[in-house]
Amino acid sequence: MSQAPGAPARSWSIDWTNTLFLGGYHLLLFILLPIYIARYDASADLILGTAALWTLCLLAITMGYHRLYAHKTYRTHPAIEAFLTFFGTLSTQGSIFSWSHDHRIHHRHVDTDLDPYSAPKGFWHSHMLWMLKKRPDINPRVIHDLWERPSLQFQHRHFGSLMVATNVIAWAALWAITGDPVGSFVIGTLLRMFLVHHCTWFINSLAHMWGSQPFSTEHTAVNNFILSVLTFGEGYHNYHHTFAGDYRNGIRWWQFDPAKIVIWTLSKIGLAHDLKRVNHLTIKRRLVAADRHLMMERIEELRHRIDVEAWKRQVEEAAASLTENLNGLKTATDRFQRLRDEKMAEMREARDGKLAEMRSLRDQKMQEMREARDGTIRHMREVRDEEIEALNQRIEELKQAVSEEMEAWKSMVHLVLESPESRLAMVPAAR
Ligand SMILES: [Zn+2]
Ligand SMILES: [Zn+2]
Q1: What's the 198 CA to ligand 1 centre distance in angstroms?
Q2: Closest Cα partner for 88 from 117, 130, 59?
Q3: Least distant ligand from the CA of 66
């Protein structure tokens, strides 16, 4: 599977390795599964074991291949990486290098000809047909941060053998548990591979076609709860394409994103760190921009029924004010956080006795210098405490303004996007 970087492949040639592998195992499954069902009874152990492998494979793709390697949204302990790499390899979706490479290009050039699984080319293309065509060789620059890592190079270089080995190990383990070698192959290997593949592939096909777009309509990605259930959290694809650097896909606590919960839990027991999350005010600002865009389109559609210019002005003004206040709130809270961290760090230092150490200096000159400096520091602290106080007040004011404007904004969005056109036409734009 190792590829020399450089010459691009001809775009129309067939990737025989992928075609024979994918076509071959689908065919084998379609022949063997009905025979197995007709002749044998699948034991509960076999069903449970297969479900466990399916879960671990999808979690490894979501948490490992996707969020850890392709997007680097957190860091984790080598043991967790090894675990994710094992089950990622078992998922037979190519090496971490090739998967991350194609996926990063997908994000960078989404929906264009350069996007490997470009959704506008149709369901079947983005779902699986793209893999049957030969892809250009890996460009190391796209994955420069992964390229030098020996363990990942090893996985890439020996991917074919590792893929077979992990699948044989999983088969043997399932056979040992169930005592059913045929079932462990047909259900635990072929059917499990089929389910893991198609669930993952749905993210490239259905998650760009079927669902809602609350964060951005600038790409085809959509949010879809059902797809999240099938992929352990990847269904909030509209959010993901808008904020790919976030370790979460479902940002609300109630959204089904088990990968997010596992990563968060690992961070709490010291096995993951540097979890990246987008600030909630930045997300709100993005939502306002998306709403604004939709409302402008809708107002334009109703051109013959309503006072377009007045409505546009009203939406524009509300969006501008809300955005400005959200920006102000973000700046103030960031600064507040920084000053408070600084203060906490100093208090910790004082507690640790560093200041006590300084106090023990006997030298007169040092004493004078210290006094002078202490005076300056005291003054700086006073100034800082005043700023913290002022910021606190400013944040409260801005929060109040934002929450009031957000309420007004929501009713405006509701009125423009969801009310029947006749009702909108009856409401005058300017208040
Ligand atoms: Zn996508
Ligand atoms: Zn992604």
Answers
A1: 15
A2: 59
A3: 2
Burial class of residue 155, CB neighbours in 10 A (0-12, 13-18, 19+): buried
SS3 273: strand
Measured CA to CA in angstroms, residue 267 lies from 76, 81, 103, 249, 270 at distances of 8, 14, 25, 17, 5
Which ligand is in closest contact with the Cα of 115? 1
Q: How far is CA 157 from the centre of its chain?
A: 27
Q: pLDDT tens across 377-404, in order? A: 888 888 888 888 898 999 999 999 888 9
Residue whose structure tokens are 């065509």: 133
The predicted model gives 163-185 an average pLDDT of 96
The 3-class SS string of 45-94 reads HHHHHHHHHHHHHHHHHHHHHHHHHHCCCCEECHHHHHHHHHHHHHCCCC
Backbone angles phi, psi at 76, to 5 degrees: -145, 170
What residue ranges do the domains of the chain occupy?
Answer: 16-273, 280-426
Measured in angstroms, how far is the CA atom of residue 260 from the centroid of ligand 2?
Answer: 14
